UniProtKB/TrEMBL annotation:
Domain Ketoreductase positions: 6-189
Gene3D superfamilies: NAD(P)-binding Rossmann-like Domain
GO biological process: fatty acid biosynthetic process
The name this protein goes by in its record: Short-chain dehydrogenase/reductase SDR
Annotated InterPro entries: KR_dom, NAD(P)-bd_dom_sf, Sc_DH/Rdtase_CS, SDR_fam
Family named by the database record: Belongs to the short-chain dehydrogenases/reductases (SDR) family.
Coiled coil ranges: none
GO terms for MF: oxidoreductase activity, acting on the CH-OH group of donors, NAD or NADP as acceptor; quinone binding
The keyword Oxidoreductase is annotated on this UniProt entry: yes
Pfam families, sorted: adh_short_C2 (PF13561)
Organism: Polymorphum gilvum (strain LMG 25793 / CGMCC 1.9160 / SL003B-26A1)
Alphabetized UniProt keyword annotations: Oxidoreductase
Keyword Oxidoreductase: yes
Length: 263
């Protein structure tokens, strides 16, 4: 119960990696706020987590400043504090570079990069006030990706946004270090979320993923949640400005690995 009585906001937490992080934090004793634009899924997720501990759903489009201000205000009204922020909300739009619409490029960066900035700034202002009043500093965790380093030609805005998140993490960590507030990021590789579920029925797609994954399997959301739990805990008290890549060994790889037959 390393996060006992800590208050954690997780954006994009109605499903997938965000929900896995919310669940792990609840198990570890935190009071959890699920922020998402999907009201039905968000309410259902919060209700499910109440079987473990305290959980609340708040509708929030992280790209909208007023939504973010409301998220912070409602969290403080409900729990009185914010100790942890996980900027997990993110979207992707696939398109050939020559056909990519400006609106789609803007939309991905608005959510993935600007949303991370807006939430970080709003929560950090509260955290700094708390530190100045003698309280303990909090921590911010951003969701980057191996695609901050490795590019995909059909996912230009996603790759650009995640590279931006990696740099935002470093800059924010330096800005907040004098207050004792730690800022880190997680860079997942191939994780079994809804976006990757189709590989289970597509042997060729699964083989492509596994051929670039030395550990020979797709990761689970709970494994990313474990990294988040470490970064949020006191065990990471001297870690800031870092991106921890949980990718099954993909980033160090400069070749493809043999993949057993699907059978």
């Amino acid at each position: 119960m390393s996060l006992t009585n800590k208050v954690a906001i997780i954006t994009g937490a109605a499903r997938g990696i965000g929900l896995a992080i919310a669940r792990r934090f609840a198990i570890d004793g935190a009071k959890v706020v699920i922020a998402d634009v999907d009201d039905d899924a968000g309410e259902a997720a919060a209700e499910d987590l109440r079987a473990i501990g305290e959980a609340l759903f708040i509708h929030c489009n992280v790209a909208e400043r007023l939504d973010v201000r409301n998220l912070v205000a409602e969290t403080l009204n409900a729990f009185g504090d914010i100790d942890i922020l996980v900027n997990n909300a993110g979207i992707a739009v696939g398109a050939d570079f020559l056909d990519l619409e400006e609106a789609d490029f803007d939309r991905v960066l608005q959510v993935n990069l600007k949303g991370t900035f807006l939430c970080s700034q709003a929560v950090a202002r509260h955290m700094v006030e708390k530190v100045e009043a003698g309280g303990e500093p909090g921590t911010i965790i951003n969701m980057s990706s191996i695609n901050a380093v490795l590019a995909i030609p059909g996912q230009v805005p996603y790759c650009v946004s995640k590279g931006g998140v990696a740099q935002l993490t470093k800059a924010t960590a330096l800005a907040l270090a004098p207050h004792g507030i730690r800022v880190n990021a997680i860079g997942p590789g191939s994780i079994m979320t809804e976006m990757l579920a189709s590989v289970n029925s597509d042997p060729a797609a699964r083989a492509r993923i596994l051929s670039r994954t030395p550990m020979g399997r797709v990761g689970e959301p709970s494994e990313i949640a474990g990294v988040a739990a470490f970064l949020a805990s006191g065990d990471a008290s001297y870690v800031t400005g870092q991106t921890l890549y949980a990718d099954g060994g993909r980033l160090p790889l400069n070749y493809t690995v043999a993949v057993p037959d699907a059978e």
